[in-house]
Amino acid sequence: MTSISQHAAPSDAFRDETPWDVGDDGDTLHEECGIFGVIGARSASSVVALGLHALQHRGQEAVGITSFDGGEFFSHRGIGHVAHVFKNQDIFADLPGMMASGHVRYSTTGGSGLRNIQPLFADLADGGFSIAHNGNISNAMTLKRDLVHKGSIFQSTSDTEVIIHLVATSRYPTLLDRFVDALRLIEGAYALICTTPAGMIACRDPLGIRPLVMGRIGSSVVFASETVALDVVGADFEREVEPGELLVVDHNGVISSHRPFGDPSPRPCIFEQVYFSRPDSILGGQSVYQSRRQIGVELAKEAPADADLVVPVPDSGVPAAIGYAAESGIPFELGIIRSHYVGRTFIQPGDSKRHAEVKRKHNANRALVAGKRIVLIDDSIVRGTTSLKIVQMMRDAGASEVHMRIASPPTDHSCFYGVDTPERSKLLAARMDLEAMADYIQADSLAFVSIDGLYRAVGQQDRNAKCPQFCDACFTGEYPTHLTDYDADAVAGETEA
Amino acid sequence: MTSISQHAAPSDAFRDETPWDVGDDGDTLHEECGIFGVIGARSASSVVALGLHALQHRGQEAVGITSFDGGEFFSHRGIGHVAHVFKNQDIFADLPGMMASGHVRYSTTGGSGLRNIQPLFADLADGGFSIAHNGNISNAMTLKRDLVHKGSIFQSTSDTEVIIHLVATSRYPTLLDRFVDALRLIEGAYALICTTPAGMIACRDPLGIRPLVMGRIGSSVVFASETVALDVVGADFEREVEPGELLVVDHNGVISSHRPFGDPSPRPCIFEQVYFSRPDSILGGQSVYQSRRQIGVELAKEAPADADLVVPVPDSGVPAAIGYAAESGIPFELGIIRSHYVGRTFIQPGDSKRHAEVKRKHNANRALVAGKRIVLIDDSIVRGTTSLKIVQMMRDAGASEVHMRIASPPTDHSCFYGVDTPERSKLLAARMDLEAMADYIQADSLAFVSIDGLYRAVGQQDRNAKCPQFCDACFTGEYPTHLTDYDADAVAGETEA
Amino acid sequence: MTSISQHAAPSDAFRDETPWDVGDDGDTLHEECGIFGVIGARSASSVVALGLHALQHRGQEAVGITSFDGGEFFSHRGIGHVAHVFKNQDIFADLPGMMASGHVRYSTTGGSGLRNIQPLFADLADGGFSIAHNGNISNAMTLKRDLVHKGSIFQSTSDTEVIIHLVATSRYPTLLDRFVDALRLIEGAYALICTTPAGMIACRDPLGIRPLVMGRIGSSVVFASETVALDVVGADFEREVEPGELLVVDHNGVISSHRPFGDPSPRPCIFEQVYFSRPDSILGGQSVYQSRRQIGVELAKEAPADADLVVPVPDSGVPAAIGYAAESGIPFELGIIRSHYVGRTFIQPGDSKRHAEVKRKHNANRALVAGKRIVLIDDSIVRGTTSLKIVQMMRDAGASEVHMRIASPPTDHSCFYGVDTPERSKLLAARMDLEAMADYIQADSLAFVSIDGLYRAVGQQDRNAKCPQFCDACFTGEYPTHLTDYDADAVAGETEA
Amino acid sequence: MTSISQHAAPSDAFRDETPWDVGDDGDTLHEECGIFGVIGARSASSVVALGLHALQHRGQEAVGITSFDGGEFFSHRGIGHVAHVFKNQDIFADLPGMMASGHVRYSTTGGSGLRNIQPLFADLADGGFSIAHNGNISNAMTLKRDLVHKGSIFQSTSDTEVIIHLVATSRYPTLLDRFVDALRLIEGAYALICTTPAGMIACRDPLGIRPLVMGRIGSSVVFASETVALDVVGADFEREVEPGELLVVDHNGVISSHRPFGDPSPRPCIFEQVYFSRPDSILGGQSVYQSRRQIGVELAKEAPADADLVVPVPDSGVPAAIGYAAESGIPFELGIIRSHYVGRTFIQPGDSKRHAEVKRKHNANRALVAGKRIVLIDDSIVRGTTSLKIVQMMRDAGASEVHMRIASPPTDHSCFYGVDTPERSKLLAARMDLEAMADYIQADSLAFVSIDGLYRAVGQQDRNAKCPQFCDACFTGEYPTHLTDYDADAVAGETEA
């Protein structure tokens, strides 16, 4: 979710709470949320904590869990990792009940306040209602303006809260009707897990941009952003929540499926395969690890290199590097060692000190690299600053040639569907052509996998240009929805001017 | 303000923050709030902190300040005393602007959460709106039910929030009209300080049950619950905000007075004179210290005692004891020493351990008391448990006779106007007659000042029975407003059954 | 105890822990410590906490408790009031055993670190040894230098630690012998409570400068700085530990008394009567309240005033004001109201902002004071800054005349026996004669009780000039011991130059 | 360093501070410390923090830094990771000076207190003295008993403090003489960095059991446990501190080398190569990564397997798995995915819940593993519990065969040189033969590299049985020093009985 308010809002008393190591060097793309819910389980809240822990890579700044014990709702939220915010076992005694849901988030500028931590909760006329959202509503500002005008009072600066107010003010008779009424007004990307006194609602936007899967542990029903969370809590994968599907589960485990949006063609986010999801997740029937390994194979075919070693930028480059090495026959070796003691990197929101961080995160394996020609494999290039430093680190360690191979096409458009991307004008691929990029990062050669190569790696014949099988807007600029809150210039970026 | 929600509400992540010494031994009545605002002052927020500090006796559990810098609103809130929550000077840099308002509160059961700490704030269609409330809205639950039904979402469990939603959803054209529209719908007791981008609004309910005064420091205008706060910030007292008056002050210091409720007869709370207000405050033109001293004089006339020493229960009994001693000629001596290191007493909300606390708070001055006949002067008797212990302490210290004199009439009805009283059935005076009370507390004699004696002490000829000059419902049961949310039985209490 | 180290010492990781409201406006004298111990009691540590709470006025900055469960020693220490550091009942479960001792301290500059919080503890060859000290060792620096040279390593910058090292390195065969050996080497003032595996040791320096009393609760033996702590824990006063006496109590409650220093004439600190001790304590057989009230009587005789009201500077001036009023016939009234929500005042160590604080602490009762001639009664004048402000406050409130009467002789020498006094050159009485002081504080008249009046008030005929019955060095400059660590100039002060 | 005191010691006030994720599943061996020092650098303390961060894998529980600014010593210590304890940049302003040293530690039972966090510091007669120690002194208890008997008072329960007291009480004239005098009395393993007003001292025990290297950044001199810390701070590796060498560096950068122990044959710890050191470190001239990869090669030769995939237990098994795959021709694939959001595992000291943790740390890559015969490569087996779970996880994910290969010989003796090992009786290899171990962990086959294979992998022809080139006592039981504090039974373990 994205911060949407430009309004004068009181500063938050808690802003000085130190965000944990959010693992951001400002030069990667960030999934902004992971969601998890379970209904019909003993100690539901601790199951949720474990599930969220497995989804921690989707959001490291804050975490919240809401539970329902048949009578009342309870919640606990905090800034930091799941393991930190829920380190005290006593917390779970304060989150009783057999239904619970939770959310991990990556913060966006200005939105680090506690009141933005999800699940959001409201007392509606029919009782409590919680909502956990992965995605971004691209007409939230427009809807909010209208709601405030009619008397709605917003508690947070989150786009997600718009959904709650739309539900609260809808004139339809039942909660489910009101909820569908609300969804029909919003555009963008959303996977949602809601809890109400009657049970749990899970749904995905019509295009299924953000992922959501369903599993079972015995008689309890589980929803999660990725299958890895099912594995970790010991649930069996049942199926994906389908794009445009809305599932309602009551306290007896009875599930009903609704399809309020008809049957549009799905467009799941392809970047989940490239980077966001855990390699041990299965997404749309496809093993993420295998997709990434296969991207490496495609890349080796499309962009071979004459080299001594294939070196991954750890850890995200490892599967593609294994594929590249296997296809090319060049040995796979750990030429870069990653510290265990940073997240994706060790820095707080904002970008001061970003540059000093690379070294704390990655260190060259000098003894291995010295005198060698290496193929460096990374998942993507965002601003290019990290790539530049990594290439430099390899040269400082004595590498005689550095050939950079990227396991995704050039990222040259911003995402408006729940991924934290820089403005388009800061994306290296939006600013330069391939040759200029190679120069910028000082690589001896640079190549990206082609968009068709990527589609092949994830199991398609090739990209269906008329009706692409995935949302690949970050690579192609083909946004599958309206972007009401964003004017055309913002979307196009100043690089187009 | 009182917690009004019986709804399922999520527990608050912060409930385990330790409330400070809230100074409650469960056997005194509590003013639940103090409010303070200033407009047109440099460092307005630090002026508010100082003012709230002087009003700390009106609410010890939590404190909040909201400021406005001409563009944005800022706020800081926390659990604990003013001196604790605002101990770091840096906080004031985060509360910039020349208008600020604040609130101290005493918590009620279940409502200790951060989100109930005032001033409450909302982004309305015309901009930010903050509200600080002293009093209690006696139809808040009824109004809230209706608002929620129409789609309003409440953030807190405070009755005060009802006012904000009434303003937000009012169809009148201007904010002031909408505010008056809201006030017309509420019943009960309220002194309010609101801030809006256009300036500050201060008002008192039509009967003026809760106090509110206006002062000036140079060109800035100040509002406060009591005059002592004016003294402490260096402001000159100007006048009381009149019952039913609504004052609007803009950023140029221009003040306009409105009287939306016509001109009903005022009924200010008489217990402010007896106990709540600081002795150095002036209330309705009457020095609180002199009122209390004079109650002692009346009490000595109405209920003399044959004794060696007049001993106050410190500190609230001291002025009446001075009056009693002066009138009776019996020497005033400190027969009980009060520790400086507890508030009104050292205990947290809830009532465990209440009993161990008396000793930590008060200790007999044995060398003085031994062998003496003493007149003990206290301000009131609530449940009677403290009186019993104090009498016992005097006897243990060797007092030969203990004559208890109480500087108020018997408290035998609950307050529904912003004072935290036990249910009627727990009030000693509602359970017993005078003789039984004397037996219960084991005093050699017991007397209360008469209701007319009390009225005389505060400067009236006597009580006007048809149209009493004060709200004295806690003594007489004559509630001056409807009590919509409370059924007749609750008001009457089971002792009437 | 005083910080003695000038050595390079590592800064303490915890120095930024916020000291609580230490109640210091820099213009009062401070007792630096209170001590309490109990042996043979269930939940000994919680008895100690209650006892220390009653001694909180003797030291507000830090508190520690050490217990012994027959096998091991345990301790908990922290910065802040007893009620804060021990607010969590679970702490007492971590302080098991039937013997415990504790200490409250007022910090001195540079010595706020946790490692200086007492009881200090060491593992000696014969087992654990804890020590809690009230007083000051006036040759500690000299002794420390020698000990360090021989290989002792100090953990704290406290003078008290010298005693432990002297015990540890003594060559005598038994712990008691080694302890006496250590005491023989130190000079100055000390009341000590030590715990060892064999039991508790309590002792007072040969002159008995600092107080220490013994009491009993059933079969347990209690030691405390003042009798008020006995009252609060429910112990019966037995007797004072005599000057120069060393009491050893074993785990069966067997007590043995030792007098290692022969039988010098006692010189207890007279300022305990004037200011330090609680009014409900009994010191040397004399009620502190009565002493102070009697000082007021003497003062009224020695320095009458033509006035309308006797007004105490609360709370320490109250007993003397009652005495003055009784003797003079002028009515006693509360012309100054003291806030409950500061300690002795609201400020942190260091003296910034000292000046803004008076108002937060005291407020004039304008309605009473306006137009009146008042006699103001205070306990002492240190720097004079507070007196000046209080007199000014009375005038601002409309007092027509202000006659200041001080319930102690002029304080014109520093204390080296455990009281935190400014350098002599900052004491008003060391800088000016009576008339100049009256001018400085802008009083219409000023008088101090005479030294003989003071001695009479505390029950003596008069002061025995050859061999004074008390240590009154702060008034007379007659120090009863060597002051090895302090050169003559420091003692005399630059005012003598 | 190891906790050595069995004495009654007061519990620490800070024990309830939550240790961070210490990364311990109780089934790995732990290096207990990393040390780092720099002299002659601006912002020396922040260089140390960065260096310690790179050594975080050597100790995750606590960290401390001491600095010296030419006049005074400063220190900051805390529980948690370097990035946590030093997250606030302001801390470095409180650690001024151009010389600083630091320490990270892994706690041992009962020794988590703040006072055990190094560097330890003392004010000696010649000034401040700090010491940071990696290793374990095997006669510390014996020495301590003697020191305490003579009057030394210990502050910590750390063996390291013995060295300070030996220095403090030595009768030699210069600090260096006293330090050498102290070292001659101790036995065991130690790499030390000390700071004194005159400069820095770095030394290694005569056998060089624990590592220590020297580097330079411009004119500053750096010491660190491993070369990776030199890389991260931007220092150039100069040479190892040699076994038995003592280097003194003054504030002008002048270095003198001393060899107080003559010239014994070195016996550096071989487990540093196998597991403790970072793969990007160079130890004794040997790349740790290459050593581990080569162990995999040796293992493939010694213990081939008929399988489809080589799967490392991440991350420590990866280099050996790469070697095994390269030698065997079986593809290397990530069959187990490791979460980034735990340290080595997510659990606190003590071993409750150890069992639930494996899943949070590692998850099977089901899509890859299902139906495959896999060779699992891990670094070592300690208790065997983790191996059992990992094998089980592979089978649950559908692996048809699981062949476990271990990149070290069987660990069947405890370490007494600074590595936290279970008692011998809990080591799987001390309890069972190879076949029984294979059964216990339920692997289809199990093999360890031979001791000679290990020696070959680290660059030796083979192990010199008479005078082994390394300390390999954990594999062979041949301890290279006396173990004064440990009786023969403890060393041998009850399994020998």
From TrEMBL, chains A, B, C, D:
Concerning InterPro entries, the annotation shows: GATase_2_dom, Ntn_hydrolases_N, PRTase-like, PRTase_dom, PurF, PurF_N
Catalytic residues (UniProt): C33 (nucleophile)
Q: Does the keyword tRNA-binding apply?
A: no
Q: In which pathway does it act?
A: Purine metabolism; IMP biosynthesis via de novo pathway; N(1)-(5-phospho-D-ribosyl)glycinamide from 5-phospho-alpha-D-ribose 1-diphosphate: step 1/2
Quote the catalytic activity from the record: 5-phospho-beta-D-ribosylamine + L-glutamate + diphosphate = 5-phospho-alpha-D-ribose 1-diphosphate + L-glutamine + H2O
| Binding-site list for [4Fe-4S] cluster | C269, C415, C471, C474
Q: Into which EC class is this enzyme placed?
A: transferase
Look up keyword 4Fe-4S and say if it applies.
Answer: yes
Q: Which cofactors does this protein require?
A: Mg(2+); [4Fe-4S] cluster
Boundaries of each Glutamine amidotransferase type-2 domain copy?
Answer: 33-252
* NCBIfam families linked to this entry: purF (TIGR01134)
Return the HAMAP family for the record: PurF
Family to which this protein belongs: In the C-terminal section; belongs to the purine/pyrimidine phosphoribosyltransferase family.
Question: Which protein is depicted?
Answer: Amidophosphoribosyltransferase
| Gene name of the record | purF
